[in-house]
Fold this sequence. Notes:
The chain is an alpha+beta fold. The protein has helices at residues 4-15, 39-45, 49-57, 61-64, 77-82, 89-97, 107-110, and strands spanning 70-75, 100-102, 114-118, 124-128, 135-136, 139-148, 151-156.
Amino acid sequence: xxxxxxGLALIVAGAGVxxxxxxxxxxxxAVPGxxxxxxxxxxxxxxxxxxxxxxxxxGLAETLSGPGPFTVFAPNNRGFAAADLPxxxxxxxxxxxxHVVPGMFTSAFLEGVDVNxxxxxxxxxxxxxxxxxxxxxxxxxxxxxxVAENGVVxxxxxxxxxx
Length: 163
């Protein structure tokens, strides 16, 4: 059963790209003990160097350093190494925007729901919180809830493929 709050988040997430830069978005709101810095700073501190380098190469650093809020499903370095990524900044940007959802969605907020969220690439991600391990497009979240000033980062073990 989806709560009223989750239903509103689905409606807001469905608006997708139009939320970027306006500070909108749904989700769990502020989390106690919020980290310092942006989602990109958090990814950098977590050692997600390939993700951070790809974001910078694709010209998305400014976006992910903006007000958000963003939920970022960031592949770890092993996941990036195993992926066949495009080399051009535009194509790489499309792949990376697929991993970002407007709004702040913590694992506690996603617990018990299986929903699709619009991402910055203009398509959707299936986020499944009905199992013991949170999954996005079937890929397990390895480290959830790395809170930033402008959102939250969930570390995953693979680059997500479009469905």
